[in-house]
From TrEMBL:
Gene designation: Rps19bp1
Organism per entry: Rhegmatorhina hoffmannsi (white-breasted antbird)
UniProt superkingdom: Eukaryota
Family assignment from sequence similarity: Belongs to the AROS family.
Name of the molecule in the record: Active regulator of SIRT1
Keyword Lipid biosynthesis: no
Compartments reported by the entry: Nucleus, Nucleolus
Alphabetical UniProt keywords: Nucleus
Amino acid sequence: LLPAAGQRKAPPEAQRGRDGPRTTGSPRRRRRAPEPARSKATVKGRVVKSAIEEYHKKKPVNHLRENLQYMLKGRLVADKAIIEQVLAQNRGRKSKDQPPEKTEKKKPEGTVFTEEDFRKFEREYFGIP
């Protein structure tokens, strides 16, 4: 049988020399054709996830109990001056964010007169014996 036209190997002299020196008769490596990119719109190969599992993953977790345990565990209380400084740093600069100024309460002034002095004054002024 004769090979079909164009199927025979060319003699070594007729081959192009772009691949560099090769041993004669060794087959030329062929570049692999790039595979076409898969369409992302297909369902093939996708793992079906349970809606309940997804809901439980995204459900907010309440950390209140853990945080309370952590807060109650430490009994160290900072100085009042340091607490005031931290609160002042985290407070806003607007007047509505500022705490009201504490006014010192005036103590009621005590009298220097005693009950005996009042009785004496009554007797002298009103003439009551």
